[in-house]
Amino acid sequence: MSRRRRIYEGKAKVLYEGPEPGTLIQHFKDDATAFNNKKHDVIDGKGVLNNRISEYVFLRLNEIGVPTHFIKRLNMREQLIREVEIIPLEVVVRNVAAGSLSTRLGIEEGTQLPRSIIEFYYKNDALNDPLVSEEHITAFGWATTQEIDDIIALAIRVNDFLSGLFLGVGIRLVDFKMECGRLWENDMMRIVVADEISPDSCRLWDIKSNDKLDKDRFRRDMGGLVEAYSEVARRLGIMSENE
Ligand code: C5P
Question: Is 105 helix (H, G, I), strand (E, B) or coil?
């Protein structure tokens, strides 16, 4: 591992140079952070679970024609991805009120939203990833109007598909965050889904009990994070009992 060139180290992942030009290796760490790094812990096995769950989600997205950066999983903690230019936005899609939406607007957590809501946050740790409008995004050149339209179309497709996928295994997709990147192929650029989609970046509630099967277990000191992520993997049928 140390022989590879490290391109970027984030809170929960490391990116290494890939085997071919235009590829990278995405390594999932066990680190858990919340509230912009103010809370930090290392949770044994979290990286392995996120690697597997995110692989599963990106494979399913690729199958229905949603473009992503994902190529293939390499091992327990790593996947091969296409190198993209990350658009500095966190795209959050919400179906049910929770988290910062509930806090900001005083809407009780668990309230079904009248329609899915898409929000943009500017990816900037020093500023605590502030909520921004499309006006900010185009004015400051983070993405063009056309790119925003493409991102919204992608976010709606991902939300519709994942809501059904999780509902099929008794899980409500309350909200999730996705990141997008620009991928160039033969002088053509298209927007693809990048980063990860896992219980670290989604709110997943058991449909019957409303039990939280996501990173809120860490954020809210509830414990049982690995058990919850394992349950998501088990329901999706992607991990055998002894893994
Ligand atoms: O905290 P908030 O309610 O805005 O989070 C909305 C969704 O985005 C949640 O599913 C959360 O896990 C995800 N998120 C994330 N990374 C962030 C902020 C939020 O994955 N930096």
Answer: helix
Nearest residue (CA) to ligand 1, atom 18: 177
DSSP code for 107: P
Distance CA 215, CA 50 (A): 11
Pairing of strands 112-122, 89-96: antiparallel
pTM metric for this prediction: 0.97
Helices (H), 140-237: 145-167, 216-219, 225-236
Query: Where does ligand 1 bind, in terms of residues with CB under 6 Å?
Result: 90, 92, 98-101, 129, 175-177, 201-203, 215
pLDDT at residue 13 greater than cutoff 50: yes
Atom 3 (ligand 1): residue with closest C-alpha? 99
Complex ipTM tops 0.90: yes
Percent helix, percent strand, percent coil in the chain, to nearest 5: 30, 35, 35
Helix and strand counts by DSSP (H, E) for the chain: 6, 14
